[in-house]
Amino acid sequence: MRAYVLIEAAIGKVSQVAQRVRALPGVVAADAVAGPYDVIAVVEGETAERIGQLVLERIHSIDGVNYTMTCVVVAG
Q1: Where are the domains of the chain?
Q2: CA end-to-end span of the chain
Q3: What share of the chain is helix, strand, coil (3-state, %, to 5)?
Q4: What is the pLDDT of residues 22-57, one digit of tens each?
Q5: Taking the complete model, does pTM exceed 0.90, yes or no?
Q6: Across-strand partners of 40?
Q7: Which CATH code, of 3.90.1680.10, 3.30.70.920, 3.30.930.10, 3.30.530.20, is assigned to 2-72?
Q8: Given pLDDT bands bounded at 50, 70 and 90, which one contains residue 75?
Q9: 75 touches 3 (CB < 8 A)
Q10: What pLDDT is attached to residue 58?
Q11: Cα(54)–Cα(33) distance, rounded to whole angstroms?
Q12: Among the residues of the chain, which ranges form H helices?
């Protein structure tokens, strides 16, 4: 299963957040972007629950992460 995680980061922490997210197991890619969100990550997990655990337990614990929105891919 795959999802896109849209991340709002604290001012001055965007690059650091992108690097730390990119290093997590289950993260396929994470890039700093321009727009309403600061980082977009592509994550994979066996189930939606695993993806949720990755976001809540790992991504949210990164210093500088203010908010996330997870968009699970339903067809592809």
Answers
A1: 2-72
A2: 10
A3: 30, 35, 35
A4: 999 999 999 999 999 999 999 999 999 999 999 999
A5: yes
A6: 6, 31
A7: 3.30.70.920
A8: confident
A9: no
A10: 97
A11: 21
A12: 14-22, 48-53
What 8-state DSSP symbol labels residue 15? Answer: H
Closest Cα partner for 39 from 70, 61, 76, 73? 70
pLDDT in tens, 5-24: 999 999 999 999 999 999 99
Question: Which residue bears the tokens 């993260």?
Answer: 27
C-beta neighbour count of 47 within 10 angstroms: 9
Query: What is the token pair recorded at 10?
Result: 């604290």
CA 70 remoteness from chain centre: 8
Amino acid at 74: V
